[in-house]
Amino acid sequence: MKTLLPFLRLWKRHGFLLGLGLILALLTLLASISLLTLSGWFLAASAVAGTAGLYSFNYMLPAAGVRGAAIIRTVARYFERLVSHDGTFRVLQHLRVYTFSKLFPLSPAGLLPFNQGDLLNRFVADVDHLDHLYLRVISPLAGALCVIIVVTFGLSFLNLPLALVAGLVMLLTLLILPPLFYRLGKGSGEAMALTQASYRRQLTRWLSSMAELKIYQHSKRWQQQLTTTGDDIYQAERQQQSLTAASQSLLMFITGLTVCLMLGLGSLLLHSASADPTWLALFTFCVLAAFESLGPVAAAFLHISKVMVSASRLNEILGQKPAVQFPQKALTDNHPGIAVRITGLGFSYPGQPRR
User: Fold this and answer.
1) Are 92 and 131 a contacting pair, CB within 8 Å?
2) Which of 22, 36, 150, 335 is least crowded, fewest Cβ atoms below 10 Å from its Cβ?
């Protein structure tokens, strides 16, 4: 994670937008949970009330709450996407300017080990990969953690033991699934980032050398090499998609087990004490909606390996120092009458025979 620290420091200047995006994401999740929870309780309470409660049961207030939660979810989702993507684009813009400001003093001697395709890939693709860190890792994890705390606290007013059980299961899911799938997807994520960089580098060399390859009839060999690299990319992407599907399937399985556990424990509590049965429907739908908010978390760390590879590739360039250090302040000419004549001056790059 040390490779990500230099880039996380650059995000501080856009901390307001990114923090506002997190707040709006949390508001969206809570509105979605409230919508499903209130809808489930409303249907259960209406069924329990029946025709006998046609005049005594208040249908208007829960219906207004359902509509309000739906409106809040829609509006919050719109502004969350707007603010989060605007903040991410501003971060990427600042990161590209920062990267170019570090690249410019190195040219051309410091950039000799890197060809044009590799530099282009680092400057464009590797910078683009860094947006996954906020959109697919930080924001879902922070939102899921806040949802677990809020849902557990809210359900504790209905039944404390069931609320603690639900909160513990969700917390264990949050702590186990991301590291597990990070381990499983680390190899394919790193392979995807490296093979994509290799493919762009080979493609740039192939296009720039097209005339020579056609003349000497080596074009098919290069095409075969590009095809092989492309197949490696597809294989890594296939592994990532398989792991994503496996994470979602495992999360759905855990959700089903938790809902069954809530129904079983809740029914035992209803038999042992005289309580309103509608709270069990509220409890069940709330847990079901809370697990839906954990959906992006299961596959969140599948992207972190690609982000770390891109960050390390950028650090290889950003960590270099220019061979020539110019003074920060301009030197003043205190002796205008002195003239210097230079003859036979030449230069060459290290390890290059040409002068």
Assistant:
1) yes
2) 335
Q: Is 305 within 8 Å of 189 (Cβ atoms)? A: yes
229 close to 198: Cβ distance less than 8 angstroms:
yes
DSSP for 65-110 reads HHHHHHHHHHHHHHHHHHHHHHHHHHHHHHHHHHHHHHHGGGTTGG
Token match 């995006």: residue?
Answer: 21
Residue from 189, 27, 141, 19 nearest 88 by CA: 19
What domains appear along the chain, each with residue ranges and CATH number? Answer: 2-318 (1.20.1560.10)
Polymer length of the chain:
355
Average pLDDT, the chain: 83
Strand locations in the chain (E)? none
- Is the whole-model pTM more than 0.90? no
Q: Which residues contact 159 (CB under 8 A, 6 or more apart)?
A: 266, 269, 279, 283
Top-ranked range on mean pLDDT: pick from 26-35, 114-123, 339-348 = 26-35
Per-residue pLDDT tens for 6-28?
777 777 788 888 899 999 999 99
For residue 29, the tally of other CB atoms under 10 A from its CB is: 26
Of the candidates 33, 18, 69, 84, the residue with the CA atom closest to the CA atom of residue 293: 33
- Which of 114, 24, 123 lies closest to 76 in space, CA to CA? 24
Amino acid type, 271: H
pLDDT (tens digit, 9 = 90+) per residue, 119-160?
Answer: 777 777 788 888 788 888 888 889 999 999 999 999 898 888
List the structure tokens of 101.
């400001």
Q: Considering the chain, what percentage of its residues have pLDDT values greater than 90?
A: 21
